Amino acid sequence: MGNKFKIGIVGTGNIFKAAHLKPLLEHPEVEIVALCDVNEQKARQIAEEHGIPHVFSDYRELLKLDDLDAVDICTPNLFHSEIAIAALQAGKHVFCEKPDAVSPEEAQKMADMAKQSGKTLMVMRNNRFTAASQFLKQYIREGHMGEVYTGRCGWIRRRGIPGKGGWFTTKELSGGGPLIDLGVHMIDLAVWLMGNPKPIAVSGATYTKFANNDISDSVHSQFGEKQENGTFDVEDLAIGFIRFENGASLQIEFSWASNIGEEMNFVELRGTRSGSSIKKGELQIFTETSGQLTNISPALSKKQVDAHGEHIRHFIEVLQQRVEPILTPEHGVDMIKILAAIYKSAETGQEVRL
User: Fold this and answer.
1) Is 0.90 topped by the overall pTM?
2) Which residue blocks in 38-123 are alpha helix, DSSP H?
3) Pair type for strands 275-279 and 264-271
4) CA dihedral over 35, 36, 40, 41, signed as positive or negative
């Protein structure tokens, strides 16, 4: 294809600079034509450095550009749905950082507008693109795990509160704490590997015990911008249990801070023929062979996969109509329904039916 997809970015903070900028700049079929940030100076600096022609402080102005094919949204969570819906209405394809939205209603509006506009809407699910995840998905697809009936997943940190006092810890802007920040990643990966069963009920509890603790041991706490004496009205730990329509279940635990040995993210699945564990990106399979219990460690490439970049490249492949999308807006609606219901369950002390 001779013409390049022209993309505009809304939100030029750390996640954009760390995970989106490089794969977009390096993609032979993409041209970044505009940057938008409420802090226009921040966007202007990046634009000058990379020869990006347009800079805006209001995304509505960016959407007026004639030759814009797609929008990449990297703002605080609250604004994801508003900007995505406006972009889809304006006839642009949308790629958006996770989470899809801060409420199921907003996620549903995004999905509806994508359908109505006929444009592609995709939300970051980078963990589906790691070498371990891709191998395990194929392994399950080929039937080697049998029926995958339960599992547990989590992302737990010892001390790793991002941008304390800033938008991450302000519920109005973020929608919640580690459950919505980290839960999206691992719950999505587990549910996708399980074959995307429909969630029907959840139970959960949330805790805030480290709002006054300033120790940090996680590289991830650099995200967001800290604010002295800022707001901290979200949880720092969430646990829960999800039931699915097909009888499967999933235990979850997500924390920014708790007294554990070390930071860890994991997805463990139990199947009738074998079980699996992805911990810190390492995959192990637990099965039986020739009458003996056996552990399998697939010899996956040690080459570091840029999973964020892989997902952005997948988005471009979908726009080029070369591949079917690995996820749909409906997956996002289900995800936000699960998260909202866990928060509701934590508040009421009751199981919540979906």
Assistant:
1) yes
2) 40-50, 59-63, 80-89, 104-117
3) antiparallel
4) negative
Strand 30-36 and strand 5-10: pairing?
parallel
Q: What's the first-to-final CA gap in the chain, in angstroms?
A: 44
Residues β-bridged to residue 199: 244
φ, ψ at 245 (rounded to 5°): -55, -35
CA dist 71 → 4, 122, 277, 288 (Å) = 14, 11, 35, 48
Q: How far is CA 49 from CA 31, 46, 335, in A?
A: 15, 5, 37
The helix (run of H) or strand (run of E) holding residue 317 is: helix 307-319
Q: SS3 of 94, please? A: strand
Strands across the sheet with 292-296, in order?
Answer: 292-296, 282-289, 275-279, 264-271, 148-156, 249-255, 237-244, 199-207, 352-353
Q: What is the mean pLDDT of residues 272-294?
A: 96
Give the type of residue at 66.
D
What tokens were used for 187? 């719950």
Model pLDDT for residues 161-198, shown as the tens digit of each residue: 999 999 999 999 999 999 999 999 999 999 999 999 99
| Residue type, position 280, single letter | K
Q: Is 305 exposed, middle or buried (0-12, 13-18, 19+ CB in 10 A)?
A: middle
Tell me the C-alpha distance between 128 and 125, whole Å: 6
With b for 16 or more beta-carbon neighbours within 10 A and e for fewer, the 172-193 pattern comes to: ebbbbbbbbbbbbbbbbbbbbb
User: Which residues share a beta bridge with 286?
Assistant: 275, 295
Which two tokens mark 351?
Answer: 């199981």
- For residue 153, the one-letter residue type is C
